[in-house]
Amino acid sequence: xxxxxxxxxxxxxxxxxxxxxxxxxxxxxxxxxxxxxxxxxxxxxxxxxxxxxxxxxxxxxxxxxxxxxxxxxxxxxxxxxxxxxxxxxxxxxxxxxxxxxxxxxxxxxxxxxxxxxxxxxxxxxxxxxxxxxxxxxxxxxxxxxxxxxxxxxxxxxxxxxxxxxxxxxxxxxxxxxxxxxxxxxxxxxxxxxxxxxxxxxxxxxxxxxxxxxxxxxxxxxxxxxxxxxxxxxxxxxxxxxxxxxxxxxxxxxxxxxxxxxxxxxxxxxxxxxxxxxxxxxxxxxxxxxxxxxxxxxxxxxxxxxxxxxxxxxxxxxxxxxxxxxxxxxxxxxxxxxxxxxxxxxxxxxxxxxxxxxxxxxxxxxxxxxxxxxxxxxxxxxxxxxxxxxxxxxxxxxxxxxxxxxxxxxxxxxxxxxxxxxxxxxxxxxxxxxxxxxxxxxxxxxxxxxxxxxxxxxxxxxx
Length: 462
Hints:
It is an enzyme of class 4 (lyase). The chain is an alpha/beta fold. It has three domains: 1-142, HUPs (Rossmann fold, 3-Layer(aba) Sandwich), CATH 3.40.50; 143-176 and 222-301, Serine Threonine Protein Phosphatase 5, Tetratricopeptide repeat, CATH 1.25.40.80; 303-453, DNA Cyclobutane Dipyrimidine Photolyase, subunit A, domain 3. Helix content is 46%, strand content 8%. It is built from 20 helices and six strands. The protein has a six-stranded mixed beta sheet with strand order 1-6-5-2-3-4. Helix 6 (158-172) packs across helix 12, helix 16 packs across helix 18 (399-408) and helix 17 packs antiparallel against helix 18. It is globular, with a radius of gyration of 22 Å.
């Protein structure tokens, strides 16, 4: 049973007498614990129709590059295999996702889709609903509690959203069980210009920026995500609370890229962690639910989430007050991207992101704070941090990424003691790193990444 709060009608047009219920899969790229998929199966069975799963592969997604597409395509291949085992046909068409629905118009009785929160994702669904010839329903499957159910406004901090989430958790954290389609579509022949997502040359056929290459040794997909979850619970969860911030420790789940692409459900992670008796359980759930859904609240209610304007008034005012402060070091975008600063720890963090597609959580905070300190203006710093993170992180272009960068500039935080450049925004320095952590181990870890991954970049002409 899917809670009513997860269901939203986007188009109230009539259901058509056509052969397929179409599930437009975009954000929830998985078959396990996918509310949109299970809802679509239920509708198909009730209408005595077949189910067709459609994915639109656009090479025009803002700031996405080769490493992101490689990871996503591995996951989509997983999905296609899993759907086939359940007798469900999947089609992947090249082009903007909402436009790809037009190619299916002649066979679509009703459209079911999942939910995205970024501006481009919401715009796709809005246009698709306006242009659809039939009913269109959106099913929330990528948060524990639907964003509007949690709050009707942008929340100030984790403390303010925590109470609201806790009130709704019991209703929305119920397990979802898989069902079967009564009518199978797997062997249906369709006159469509489909993409073969298992073709190794598909990346070369896409018009991608070509700044970053695939990350070696990282595999996308729901099967890999589930394996990582089990490894984390068995080997790392017990020490997560005390060890997650230690740079180079590897004491994290590694699931954020998989969650970004919808390759694993936050509900599946939550129920697996909640059932454990681990001392690290509470802290992990706080990050998974409170912090992540605070980030989604941010991008949903703040239309400026990807710009300096998204920051609270106090943060913008205090940073602008210190615009003319002397800056001992200034670096431009090219120097920062190449990791050519005077700070070996910052350089290591930047190199880690370029090489591996991820960065230790504590170092991400330090990384963003230093970009603020070393840029001509806080607005320039904000833009550089967003661009670098989106370009190289596998979980870039994500609500948590936008909120994480904004936090470095004062979002979801409080004013601190005033100081040069930062004003009342929280400050971090390398002395704090050395005092708290074994930074030599972190440098050694990144040096090893260089040997394994190469330089993480290809030659690129703008």
